[in-house]
Amino acid sequence: MHMQSLTRAPRTQADRHTGRLMILPMLVVVSVFSLYPAVDSFLLSLHRWFLGLPSLGRPFVGLDNYREFLQDPIAHQALLVTAGFVLASTALELLLGLGIALVIHEHFVGRGGVRAAILVPWAIPTVVASQMWRFLANDQYGAINLVLFGDDIGAYVPWLADPWSAFGIIVLADVWKTSSFAALLILAGLQLIPDDLYDAARVDGATAWQRFWHLTLPLLKPALLTALLFRTIDAFRVFDLVFVMTQGGPGDATQVIQFYGYKTLFTEGRVGYGTTISVTVFVVILMLSFLYVRMVGSKLLERRAT
Amino acid sequence: MTRTRGEHVLLWGGILLAVGGSLFPFLWLVSTSLKSPIYVEAIPPTWWPDGSLVFYRNVLFEHRLFDYMINSAIVAGSTTGLALLVATPAAYALARLRLPGTAWILRGLLCVAMFPQIVIAGPVWRMLERLGGLNTHWGLVLPYVALTLPLAVWILATFFNDLPRELEEAASIDGCTTGQTLMYVMLPLAVPGLFTAAILTFIYAWNEFFFALLILTDPAKHTLPVGIALFQGEFTMPWGEIAAASVLATLPLIVVVLLFQRGIIGGLSAGAIKG
After folding, report:
1. Structural domain boundaries, residue A113
2. What is the pLDDT of residues A209-243, one digit of tens each?
3. Across the interface, which of B40, B110, B250 has its CB nearest the CB of A128?
4. What is the CATH number of the domain that holds A260?
5. Which among A121, A135, A293 has the least Cβ separation from residue B110?
6. Residue A4 domain flag
7. Within a domain: residue A20?
8. What's the mean pLDDT in B83-109?
9. Where is average pLDDT lowest: A91-100, A153-162, B132-141?
10. Cα–Cα separations (whole angstroms), residue B38 to A152, B32, B48, B49, B247
11. By CA distance, what is B157's nearest residue in A?
12. Domain count for chain A
């Protein structure tokens, strides 16, 4: 290892030049289609702009849109719904993800097939998963009612018509769709724990539960935290599920902040205010991302640090 | 490794729950898609389909599903090709050439991957409007390339980083330039990594909804997710058609997952970015 770094150290100037050229296209694409739009959105949020009223122009209004956001009861409700969604779905996904990871980490006949089956919800387009759960929760033809009540059709429940159960179904759909991804992140953590530790614990007479509680769980903490942050960020951005399943309803029961921002921005054409909502979400996510990036462990980054 | 009886029960119980829970909802959709119309609207629903293909015929020949599939294939295919073309040299340089600021670029890419789509979508939409890119395939492909680059670069950089350095050194002693080393020495070795990056990029572009909804508004240009999300019947929800369309949109992905499960699992935990 040391020999390699010694022989690699004197890189030629030409090599650096080639390297910069190799990164350049990537930087340009990301800057034009991700960084610049984000900055542009921030600037727009300082303007008042109604798409339907071009005669009003786009006056600069400073932080007016942010003041409106602070006083907008619908936005507050949307934030509350989002917070509830993030908490409920992330907690369930981590628990289920941990369970799945522990199972698929074991050696058993047919493990490859089981892993593939668990990847199916992750691979399915979110829109398809949304339509699927909308149908499963249908008041007349849905499988949820069939499983719970069988032929007793008088007991069938219109799940998506009630605020609380509609919220529950959306959480359920998200948990179904993304627990397997949480499981993969946790599995990556499990694979880092050396088998010797378990063998030693076995020799010392530790039960399966003791091995899990005193060995696996503490060593898994970084992976669990990564998965937690990742899922939190992702749950914050939920949109497709709500768009397809409820359009924010009934009432505003499932109107998450991303959907409210979308409606304000693209349906109502209140560009300035709609962008303000999206920038607010962005700032929260950016702070979470900074935390996340600090935690990501990768040989790629470690090597640079030395 | 030996397990006690209790551990066996726990393990196989867990396997059953995980596999059943993962597959049951989708199997219900498959079952629905294979029913005759009268059974889809039966109350209570029936468990088993009667094997009718009428909904598949409907979506393929009376709706525009075929167009959607072509659009999705074009968009996802072009996105994958372009993203890999841009990501591969970048990933190699970031993994191997010790440029200043490499760690910052890699961290920055992780952050960019987290950007909420809505904050990017408005300005991108206006940019495309000025350039005439709305309702064109390239108008969707360009933002998709940007959105998938962070993941592709991380997967590939992780992969390059694990390749032995001796080969590169041999190549440079033999007088290869950096570009030639990448092209002829490293790239052939990186094929599994390229494959994983390609699969995950393709799945992302095939499944993406938000940008597709905003940029391709002409029904003839819809991709599969938009077509399926906006599927409307004249009077009632056409559940049978939606189920058939959903199965057709998902089938290619399931085949990919079955074939490349190992690569996908490895790739997804590279930098722990989501596909």
Report:
1. 75-305
2. 888 999 999 999 888 988 899 899 999 999 999 99
3. B250
4. 1.10.3720.10
5. A293
6. no
7. no
8. 92
9. A153-162
10. 20, 11, 13, 11, 20
11. A300
12. 1
DSSP percent split of chain A into helix, strand, coil, nearest 5? 75, 0, 20
Judge: B111–A30 Cβ closer than 8 Å, yes or no.
Answer: no
- Whether pLDDT at A1 is above 50: no
Q: Using alpha carbons, select from B227, B215, B71 the residue that is nearest to residue B133.
A: B215
Q: How far apart are CA B223 and CA A8, in angstroms?
A: 48
Phi first, then psi, for residue A126 (nearest 5°) are -60, -35
Contact between A22 and B117 using a beta-carbon 8 Å cutoff: no
Shortest CA gap A99–chain B (Å): 8
ipTM for the complex?
0.91
- A131 within a domain of the structure (yes/no): yes
Report if residue A279 sits inside a domain. yes
At A297, the pLDDT band (50, 70, 90 cuts) reads low
Chain B residue whose CA is closest to A238? B116
Q: Choose among A117, A119, A125: nearest Cβ to B249.
A: A125
Q: Which one has a higher pLDDT value, B83 or A298?
A: B83
Contact B149 A30 (CB under 8 A): yes
Residues of chain A numbered 80-119 and touching chain B (CB < 8 Å) = 99-100, 102-104, 106-108, 112, 114-119
Interface test with B, best of A1, A22, A283 (most B CBs within 10 A): A22
Q: Which residues pair with A270 in a beta bridge?
A: A50
Strand partners, A50: A270
A203 token code pair: 């020799």
% chain A with pLDDT above 70: 93
Percent of chain A with pLDDT over 90: 68
